[in-house]
Each structure stands twice: as C-alpha cells, then as structure tokens.
C-alpha cells in the first residue's frame, strides 16, 4: 500500500517536471533546440535497453516467488547492468550536448530538459543501488521478512522508473517541439 | 504487490499443499508451479518475453516515426500518444502485476496519475500552452 502511494506521489513529481519542460521547450536559441540537439536513434537504443531491464526485473520477481535464489540474483544483476548501461548512455548524451554548447543555464529549454532527464537518471541510479544492495543481502541470506515481497517492492520501483521513461521518451524526444 | 491471502496461497504452492496438480511438479516443480503462479500473476518466462517483444516492436514503431514526420502529418502526435499509452498500460498491468493485484492498488496508482495529468493540464492551460500562437 505504502509503495503504491509513494509511486502515486512520484507521478505528481514527474508530472510537474514534464509540464515545466513542455512549457519551456520552445524557449531556446535557433541553433541549440531539441531538433538540433537530440540524437533520436541513440536515445531509442537507450529506451530499448531500459525496457528490456523491466523484462529481466519481472523474471527476478518470478524467480524470487519460486524461491530460486540463484536465478533471482542473476536477473537482479542483469537488471542492474542494463540500468547502468542506460545511465551511461544518459551521461554520454549530456556530455555531447554540453560540448555542443548546451549548458544547464543556456536556456529555459536546457534547464527544464536537464532537470527532467537528470531527475529520472537519479531515480534509475537509486534503483541500481537498491538492486545491488538486494543482491548483496540476498547472498548473505539477510533479506528481512518475505524475500519474494521485498524483491517485488524493488521491482515495482524499477518498473515505475521504466514507465516514466516511456512518457519522457515520447513527449520530450519524439513529439516535435 | 500481492495481498496477504495471495501470499499464503504462494506458500501453499511452494510447499506443495492443498492442490491436486502439485504431484505434477516433478523434480523441479516447474510445471504445476507455473500453473499456480499464473493464477496470481506470475506467468512463465515465455509470457514475459512475448510481452517484452511486443513493447520492443512498439518502441521501434515509435522511433520509425522520426523519419516519416512529414508523411504522418496530423497523425504523428496522436499515433505517438496512443503507442505511449499502450506501452504504459502494458508495463503497469503485466510487469507491475496490477492486472492481478487487488484493485485498490490500481486505484491508488492511476488516481495519482490522473490527478497529475489534470493538475498539470490546468497548469499548462494557465500559461496558454494549448492556445495556438
């Protein structure tokens, strides 16, 4: 119950950030706008990687429900690796944009873009830390309470991060400004 | 997230009590366990792989619109929003197990989402976001 309430409140947080971006996405200079700066094929691959991490997460939840610790740890680790690949892609994307002249304070577009996608990246990073911590305590058999439920809670958070990216990918990257 | 009742059912399944088909679990308990897991939202691996493939195809279609923006014209934004909504609902319902969980969790999650959409639609309308310039 608490987890779902938390996710509901997260919807409001990301709703605010997405709305702010939508409002300011047209406020940029002629040469440093979304049409010039976004690399859609690259971001599509990142999106696909994050989407597949949801698959590996659900397989981890399924393995935990079957009390298969080895497979649970394997899928959790793969999920964390896919998440790290996504975050690495985001760091690369930010670096390229910065080198092209798009800093955080360059325009209202850049500020709202970096804040939105940066917040999402932080959420993914927190998810990776949760996954690796879970693998660590699972290997030591120190998971408190119902292990399957603990894995499911982390899974819910991870899937939420994925559905937020589904929205960001369409509204921010694909719909022309 | 499963209800308490559902978890006690899982425990029964995993310990092999109270269900006739548990004898079919065999050496690893895979077959019968899958049957019981399906009941409570834990589907076999192949099911999740098919869902992920479907999501992957939708992502590819979304990306493909990038190269045919002119051709799609007025259909571009609605088609992208529809594909986004389908992906969202599929992940929330099947991967997050909302389809099989207690409906109160769906209410909590979707009410937060709908509230966010309404509040921020009003916010954007205040700033004349929907007014053509």
UniProtKB/TrEMBL annotation, chain A:
GO terms for molecular function: cytochrome-c oxidase activity. GO terms for biological process: aerobic electron transport chain. Keywords: Cell membrane, Membrane, Transmembrane, Transmembrane helix. Pfam families: COX3. Residues 1-177 form the Heme-copper oxidase subunit III family profile domain. It is found in: Cell membrane. The chain crosses the membrane at residues 5-24, 44-65, 72-92, 112-135, 156-175. Signal peptide: none annotated. GO terms for cellular component: plasma membrane. InterPro entries: Cyt_c/ubiquinol_Oxase_su3, Cyt_c_oxidase-like_su3, Cyt_c_oxidase_su3-like_sf, Cyt_c_oxidase_su3_a-hlx. Its main location: membrane. It is a multi-pass membrane protein. Belongs to the cytochrome c oxidase subunit 3 family. This is Unannotated protein. The lineage of its organism: unclassified sequences, metagenomes, ecological metagenomes.
TrEMBL record, chain B:
InterPro entries: Cyt_c_oxidase_su4_prok (IPR005171). It is a multi-pass membrane protein. It is found in: Cell membrane. Pfam families: COX4_pro. The chain crosses the membrane at residues 47-69, 75-95, 107-130. The keyword Hydrolase does not apply. The keyword Ion transport does not apply. One of its GO terms (cellular component) is plasma membrane. Keywords: Cell membrane, Membrane, Transmembrane, Transmembrane helix. Residues 1-41 are annotated as: Disordered. This is Unannotated protein. The lineage of its organism: unclassified sequences, metagenomes, ecological metagenomes.
């Amino acid at each position: 119950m608490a987890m779902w309430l938390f996710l509901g409140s997260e919807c409001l947080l990301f709703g605010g950030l997405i709305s702010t971006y939508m409002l300011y996405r047209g406020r940029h200079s002629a040469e440093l706008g979304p049409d010039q700066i976004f690399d859609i094929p690259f971001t599509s691959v990142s999106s696909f990687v994050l989407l597949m991490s949801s698959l590996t997460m659900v397989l981890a939840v399924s393995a935990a429900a079957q009390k298969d610790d080895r497979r649970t740890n394997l899928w959790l680790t793969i999920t964390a690796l896919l998440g790290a690949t996504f975050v690495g892609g985001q760091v690369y994307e930010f670096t390229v944009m910065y080198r092209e002249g798009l800093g955080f304070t360059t325009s209202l577009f850049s500020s709202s873009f970096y804040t939105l996608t940066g917040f999402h990246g932080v959420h993914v990073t927190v998810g990776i830390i949760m996954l690796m911590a879970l693998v660590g305590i699972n290997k030591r058999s120190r998971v408190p309470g119902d292990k399957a439920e603990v894995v499911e809670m982390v899974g819910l958070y991870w899937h939420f991060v994925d559905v937020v990216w589904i929205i960001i990918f369409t509204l921010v990257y694909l719909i022309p400004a | 997230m499963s209800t308490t009742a559902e978890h006690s059912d899982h425990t029964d399944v995993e310990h092999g009590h109270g269900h006739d088909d548990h004898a079919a679990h065999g050496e690893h308990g895979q077959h019968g366990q899958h049957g019981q897991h399906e009941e409570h939202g834990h589907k076999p691996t192949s099911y999740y792989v098919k869902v992920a493939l479907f999501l992957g195809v939708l992502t590819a279609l979304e990306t493909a619109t990038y190269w045919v923006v002119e051709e799609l014209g007025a259909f571009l934004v609605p088609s992208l929003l529809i594909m986004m909504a389908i992906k969202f609902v599929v992940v929330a319902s099947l991967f997050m197990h909302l389809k099989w969980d207690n409906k109160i969790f769906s209410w909590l999650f979707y009410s937060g989402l709908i509230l966010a959409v309404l509040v921020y639609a009003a916010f954007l309308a205040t700033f004349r976001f929907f007014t053509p310039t």
